[in-house]
Design a protein that fits this description.
Blueprint (H helix, E strand, L loop, with lengths): L1 E4 L2 H4 L2 E3 L5 H14 L7 H13 L3 H11 L19 H10 L2 H13 L12 H19 L3 H27 L7 E3 L2 E4 L5 E4 L5 E6 L17 E5 L16 H4 L4 H9 L6 E2 H8 L3 H13 L3 E6 L2 E6 L1 H9 L16
Length: about 350
């Protein structure tokens, strides 16, 4: 059990990272790579990731360098997910390079005590860390970046849901949502592999929804670092196939005033429920639901249940399509395993 202790100052310093964190996604995707196809949600990603890693000649580097640094369970070094990663991949990689050698040595020593690789201590040297960074970048570009549109779509849907949760139920309800949390003021209780207390002491908490996080949330071990809580994004059901339709037919089905209006209605920063789509377009709830389904099947919307409603948000593709038809200056919608 993880117990996060809040003060009054911490409650006003809760925030959500503005975009998916690339290095958290890299590290947690390595867990999924180990798990193979046992998680149905990630099975398509796993299959394509293995193929791409072999095609790019990265399979052995991932197997021999990255996987040993991120074990199947338990601790992996905090310096692999620096706070700078919130600003993007390159900023995060610079943060790894800039990590203090003493800190890197301490964290890799903790890893080797738990059965990690003996060579990890060499990462205290800048040259070895530079090699690690090159491998991390190549791995991200090969197996994470090709899925960025889906990752961003689910991430933006999560931000919309959390924004509505905060507006509708305040901090109290917001803190009950990540990863099956139980909020017993002033302590947040979450399922965790080990028994641990994290005291925020006025520093606040940064929430990081993660595409590749599965099951329990994750946090940093070092209590002196910025407190973060990484928790699983909610994955929707796999998109239905389109039968005998050709590749252009789902998008062709979008042509028409009503579906364009539904798409515009979903462009709110907090998305739109089915009822709100209906009111915006002047159609029935059932008709709004049917149009939203067609847009979702075409990859333009993401839908998630929020309380008693279904919340619809734009995907990057939906936002791009909508923006392409607008005059300049109009407000935009939201955009943002073992290797054999």
């Amino acid at each position: 059990m993880l117990r996060i202790h809040f003060t009054a100052a911490d409650l006003v310093r809760i925030r959500m990272t503005p975009a998916p964190d690339p290095l958290w996604e890299v590290c947690l995707s390595l867990h999924r790579l180990r798990a193979g196809q046992r998680r149905r949600t990630y099975a398509p990603w796993y299959r394509t990731a293995r193929v791409r890693l072999h095609e790019e000649g990265l399979a052995s580097r991932v197997r021999n360098l990255l996987l040993p640094l991120v074990p199947r369970s338990g601790y992996f070094p905090d310096f692999l997910t620096p706070a700078e990663s919130a600003e993007g991949l390159e900023a995060g990689l610079r943060g790894i390079i800039a990590a203090a050698p003493d800190r890197v040595l301490e964290e890799t020593r903790r890893l080797t005590v738990g059965g990690g690789p003996s060579w990890a201590a060499r990462l205290g040297g800048r040259e070895d860390r530079a090699h690690l960074v090159r491998t991390l970048r190549a791995y991200h570009d090969t197996v994470i970046a090709p899925h960025s549109e889906e990752i961003h779509a689910l991430f933006e849907a999560e931000r919309s849901i959390r924004a509505r949760t905060l507006l509708d139920g305040g901090i109290d309800r917001l803190l009950r949502t990540p990863g099956g949390a139980q909020w017993k003021p002033p302590v947040l209780h979450l399922g965790y592999p080990v028994d641990r207390d994290l005291h925020l002491d006025g520093r606040g908490l940064r929430l990081i929804p993660s595409y590749f996080c599965w099951g329990s949330p994750v946090t940093l071990l070092d209590p002196e670092l910025e407190p973060v809580l990484v928790y699983p994004l909610k994955h929707g059901e796999p998109q239905p196939t389109h039968g005998g339709q050709g590749p252009g037919e789902p998008l062709a089905a979008l042509l028409g005033r009503t579906r364009a209006a539904v798409l515009r209605a979903a462009a709110s920063r907090t998305g739109a429920t089915t009822g709100e789509l209906a009111r915006f377009t002047g159609i029935s709830d059932s008709s709004a639901s049917q149009h939203a389904t067609a847009l979702r099947n075409a990859g333009l919307l993401v839908s998630h249940r929020h309380s008693a409603s279904v919340l619809h948000t734009l995907t990057p593709l939906g936002s791009s399509l909508l923006t392409a038809g607008r005059p300049a200056g109009r407000v935009r919608g939201p955009i943002g395993a073992a290797v054999g």
